[in-house]
Design brief:
Length: 513
Amino acid sequence: MLMGLSVRYLAVMSQPWQVLIGCTATACHFPLMFWFAEFLIRHLIKKQCRNQERALLIPNRKEDVSSALLRVCSKISKDKWISKPFPLTPLNLFCAHYCFVTLFLLPTDPPDGSPSCSVEPALNHTSLRLLCSWSGGFPPASVHWTGDLKQLDQETADQGLLPHPQANTAIVLSSQGLISNNSLFTCRGSHVALKEFTECSTRAYVPPAEPVCFAYVTTNRQYLMLSCSWDGGAPRALVWWEGPGGQGKAGEENSNILVLGYGTARGGKPYTCHAKHPLLARTKTCNLTLEAPVLLTQRRVVSVYEGSDVQLTCNLRANYLPGNEIIWLNNHGMDVKETPKYALNRNTAWANLTVRDTEENQDSGEYRCTTSNAVGGTEINITLVVKRHPMPPNVTVIKAMYNSRQRNEVELEWQVQSEELGGWTGFILEQRWMSERPGRSGSRRNDSQKEERIDQQVWYQKSFLEPGFRSHTVLRLTPTINYQFRITPVNHRTIGHPSAAKTPGIQQNLVEF
């Protein structure tokens, strides 16, 4: 540029591949100015562009400014990426000022489609980065974000990520600059070959729910997994773990799983999952406090009478960490299995043990319920007391008589002491041989043989009688044998004292003369 003249590039026209430049005189004020080119002398003023290289002079119509516009046309195939130099000279004949400019004409080609918009976190999820790009075309398209944006940093793609600075843009926004959740951002793209703008939009919003934490154990009990997720939202949230003893994990988007070796977790102290989203000033959290399992029971001491079935309960208190199967040990320290003696009823949270047909000596004692998880193990003791039923009241035999001369049937009658108080469930009828009447069965025994037989007398249970019976007839007796009978009261499995032995007599009207 020489003194008094300035040449500036104004615009690239779309069709038919036109370029508009201008020249302004600043040192003198004469309205007559011309563009001069050696090969365009004969065509300085033309109405339109030809199919060859042309120049069109547009005189300035304002008297206060000495300037001229030149529209240069060139028919160049846009399939050939070439440039064409045009040495042009704006000339002010009155001021004798001039300058030279060389114009390069390039073909234009609009990019395909429309701009692409996205939003991502920035500055450790404390801000938003808005990305807009529109690749392709020639010359490159121009994109920019619209709206009232409080911009902290303007990034362009001249860092080698995208081909040209004007074809993409990135804006970093502070979360304090966003008015509300679910904000909409619009990017506008333009190109010299297109008459209208093209837009794309993206939206930023917080995940709708709260972060979710839970723990689980792998099937082989090798690892304990602590899972935390905060699904949804744009951009995705950053999630990380912090635990006792340095047990934690760096941030990951959307979800994060902390893997601990089985048995290495710290019990009683919280593991905290932090979740951060650029639209929120504060971090959201959820906690898992890992504990060894805690077992509960309805009764620590269970009493039952002999012969009854009894159920011992064991429940796993709800906590964040699942436990293993609940195991029962009996009063002898043996693992309880399904047997006729024991019945197990269980699910993942409880296990009940039923002891059938209890006996005082066999089933009384300490039973243990035990389980464990990835933090530790625990057990609970339950005492089973099997009690005998109270002693039944005493019984007195008040009648024992043969009812015929054949002496093969005896009628018995008895009474119960303090019968109104109850306390018995039946009676045992017993008998024994005392002696055999001589001469009746053809046997001849000396005195020593009889004495030996008396010494070996034992009681045999004849029958069990219902608790409401007060009399009974004994049948099928041997006439030549002398018997004794007694009644023993029973209260469930508690056997009372037997009555005094009674030898049956013969009714007076049946005595032989």
